[in-house]
């Protein structure tokens, strides 16, 4: 590594506290949803976007008075519903959908996904308030699967998020359905007490999976599919088109013209749509913003990968750098690389390498020669 670059990295902008890629603000003013949206856009970034259970906890800690507060999720009457996976950060690909014949059938009350026979690999939609068995999943690499007792889809989602990772979604479901009778014994599916035989799954009428459809969108235009509805959620309501957090931290729909306080957020991440080398990107971020972005956990990963959807290059630079002298990867913000999302095993024997994120697919990290030119992500 060139001495000047090495010194530049050492003089990095360090965080004196745990850095957050977005920050929430409670505004104690009663406004309609549209008025709250305008206020947040004038004073901060936008009405609050919520992407994970970690965000839910942050909002609950702020909402000490346990009152109803607007967030940035809304719907437009007449807008077609789109499909999403329950697992945060996992984008739904319509071209890979496996709907059964005549499904989804357009019934507005049927917005949650299920499978009728796990070996047929076909999906159907059901009412979220029906009760059914369901499949949870733990982790994404070498996952384990768990079969739950009958619950509504929302109760099943809460159960999976509390006890495992989430309802089975996307690649996890595809991986499970690859197995046939010969290899099925390597997959263990559990209810609360006993092992469930693979072949016996066909005896269950329906099994909920982590698939749902809705017409809700975030005020800032982000595509996060995370939802945290309460038990009284009614997807077919034509009047309640805006979302608020209730005293228990759950979400409810309300008429947008009703007035209440609200959550705004400030975004501390920005995509730069210019193609530069890694060193040029580092100089740019430190001169115009704060630094090249640091990703310390899965929630950071999801927040950053959302920004990449508007990139014009196949990768975006991050603040990852490899030192040949010491033989390890590090963040230029001086954070230790604990959380990792590499596309392949780390190549520790290559110099002049920096870390970039894929702008499509699973948004994995890759090691690329620092002289390549890509868009990049700055922290603010």
Automatic annotation (TrEMBL):
Gene3D superfamilies: Mannose-Binding Protein A, subunit A (3.10.100.10). SUPFAM superfamilies: C-type lectin-like (SSF56436). The keyword Signal applies. Keywords: Disulfide bond, Signal. The keyword Ribonucleoprotein does not apply. InterPro entries: C-type_lectin-like, C-type_lectin-like/link_sf, C-type_lectin_CS, CTDL_fold. Residues 24-137, 145-265, 260-379 form the C-type lectin domain. Residues 1-19 form the signal peptide. This is C-type lectin domain-containing protein. It comes from Oryzias melastigma.
